[in-house]
Amino acid sequence: MAEEATKSRLVALPGERTLGMRDMIMIQISFSVATWMLLTGAYIGFSAPFWPAMIISVFGTTFPLLYHAFLGKMVTRWGVDQSILARATWGPVGTIILLPFFLFLMYIIWTSIPVVMFGRTVNQAFSFLGVTGFWADARLWGVLAFCCSALILWKSAAVLFWFFRFVTPTIVLVLILLTVRTVVVYGWDNLVHIIPEGFDPNPDMSYMIGSEVAIGLGFSWVFCFSIYGRLAKREKVGYFGSLIGWGPAWGILSAPAILAALAAGVTDPVYLLEGANGVWVGMYLVFLFGANIFSAVCTMYIVSLSARVLVPKLPWSWAVLINALVIILVFWTAAYDQFNKFITLVGATFGPLGGIMVVDYMLKRYRVNLRELYTPKKGSAYWYWWGINPYAFIAFAVGAGFDIWMYNPFTLAVAQPEVFKIAGAAIPSTLLASLVYLVLSRLFLMPKGIGFPEVPLVHSRRASGTPAVPQVALAEQGAVEA
Amino acid sequence: MATSQSIDPIDVNQMVLEETDRRLDTYYELALPGDEDSPIEPMGASWVWFVIIIGVALYALWLIGRFIILPIYT
User: B36 lies in which domain range?
Assistant: First the structure.
């Protein structure tokens, strides 16, 4: 049943928590160190010289997580998948509206990126060896990469925890070696003084656009916290494990991609192989195989797990098979080729989305009624109106609308350049959405207790010395008027 | 000698649903969520200040990168 808990809607019990801080950091680094790191790093490297680019990288990946990682604290406390926990904020119907786009579609696109890049890198390596034709076809290797990932996920989700202990240190080691190799070939002084073409003739504007790319990535983890966070032993592991693994560790480890972009002057990290001999090509392939396969497994795991949450009787093999939609994106590589637009859209939407949930959990004092969460029907405590929390959606529309107005992800047009250059778009829009939800919730939800049901509390047990778990009204928590 | 007998197939999905139901009733007592005595050690509110300080430091670093370091290289 513990194995089943890793791939179903079960609440993870304390005895099933297996992940300490070291494990969690390693797992989250493994999760992030992959093609999206190389691709995002390359885009950041294209926006500014090396040291400013490194600052962008560390800031952009870490700052948003300082806020969103409170979602990690919440999932660790309750051991519940986020697609269930989200009902507390958005309502059951609202969650079903959000999941197809923000979870299934987005993560299928994310999965396509390591898969596509694996195929292209093998193609590049074959070109280096003079091999052409069927076996050098990038799409063939992309499909094979997907099949390997699906097979691992289908066989066992729990065994991943052990693989990570071996794979992550290996990936980090190879990344360090690749950095050394790049520096030796191009020269450190040369690399740090290269001025990239940039996304805009104005360096300040290019710096901000590069920051938006990194911030978009920092905000992209909203539905990833529960993958392993619900198996964390302590709440601090849920918060800081995710923060460190996806934030500063990611920002620093993206240095090879930043250097590669500076050296090659392009945003496609496949060129990291350029000028390398066979040994380096081999090492690079090992890195891509390990990192991309496991990163694809992680995002596929999110989709499969959430599918089983929505349809509890769905067999695991079918839940894994949903990810086969990725194959479409192996043949139609729009997300990979226009990654900057994709990541900007992610920042515009996931930032407000996660911010609203954090505010909601804070207002709920990180307490939920599990029984009500698992009862998504009319009349349940988190039903709101027609199964939707309209105030959360209003706040989301305000935040995402502001972001798209300020920095349009489809055209990359900036509405107010002077404001944008200092504040950006994704962070203000997230704060705006959070503020709007805070005000609306205080005005319209909390006074009526809508979405704030009674929760079984244990705090009073110690005080009273009684073994029973008393029902304490929200009024006693100070959240509503008594 | 072993004989083939009709054995009820184990319905894992049904088991999961029943187990979910059981856990919903017992989780509060087993996990004491948010309580000081919880086996899942809670993260206290005081950590918010630590997070705010790190956030301010990071934003200061970003401003230094934008206004001091970037002009040096461009």
Answer: 12-42
